[in-house]
């Protein structure tokens, strides 16, 4: 069984910063791509940023230059540093990872429970 647990969300003023963390636990052999998504009510979940197992990153245009994704493979963790936050960044942020539980096994897609980020004065 695999679990992804996010932390670090909250209320912040425009222009402020937050750092999200996600820790993976359970039956894990290998973790491939890790990512952060976000969703607001009535809209589809969208990719914010992802990072490969070797550290290659990809960002949504709306967050480039403001957000930084990183990972610590030893800690089975992924992070999202969010700077210069805007009201339109308000959303529930979800951690996502492609995980294989056994050697030569398939990679399955796992999600965290989500953490609320609210940017408001």
Beta-strand share of residues: over 45%
- The helix-strand sequence is EEEEEEEEEEE
State mean pLDDT (0 to 100 scale): 96
Give the total of beta strands: 11
User: What percent of residues adopt helix (DSSP H or I)?
Assistant: under 10%
Uncertain regions: pLDDT < 50 for 5+ in a row? Answer: none
Over the alpha carbons, how many angstroms does the gyration radius reach?
A: 14 Å
Question: Helices and strands in order, then pairings?
Answer:
Layout: E1 2-7, E2 10-12, E3 18-26, E4 30-39, E5 46-51, E6 57-59, E7 67-72, E8 77-82, E9 91-100, E10 108-111, E11 115-119
Parallel strand pairs: 2-11
Antiparallel strand pairs: 1-3, 3-8, 4-5, 4-9, 5-6, 7-8, 9-10, 9-11
Structure description:
It is a single chain. By secondary structure, the protein is mainly beta. It has strands at residues 2-7, 10-12, 18-26, 30-39, 46-51, 57-59, 67-72, 77-82, 91-100, 108-111, 115-119. Strands 2, 4, 5, 6, 9, 10 and 11 form a 7-stranded mixed beta sheet that branches. It has a 4-stranded antiparallel beta sheet with strand order 1-3-8-7, with no helix packed on it. A hairpin with a 5-residue loop joins strand 5 and strand 6. The chain starts with a strand and ends with a strand.
Please sum up the structure shown:
This protein has strands at residues 2-7, 10-12, 18-26, 30-39, 46-51, 57-59, 67-72, 77-82, 91-100, 108-111, 115-119. It is mostly beta strands.
Features:
121 residues, mainly beta, 4-stranded antiparallel sheet
């Amino acid at each position: 069984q695999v679990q992804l647990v996010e932390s670090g969300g909250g209320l912040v003023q425009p222009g402020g910063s937050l750092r999200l963390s996600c820790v993976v636990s359970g039956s894990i052999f290998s973790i491939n791509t890790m990512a952060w998504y976000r969703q607001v009510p009535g809209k589809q979940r969208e990719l914010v940023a992802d990072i490969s197992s070797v550290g290659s990153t990809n960002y949504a245009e709306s967050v480039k230059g403001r957000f930084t994704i990183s990972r610590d493979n030893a800690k089975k963790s992924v992070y999202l540093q969010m700077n210069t936050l805007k009201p339109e960044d308000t959303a529930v942020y979800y951690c996502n990872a492609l995980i294989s539980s056994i050697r030569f096994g398939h990679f399955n897609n796992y999600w965290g429970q989500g953490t609320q980020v609210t940017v408001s004065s």
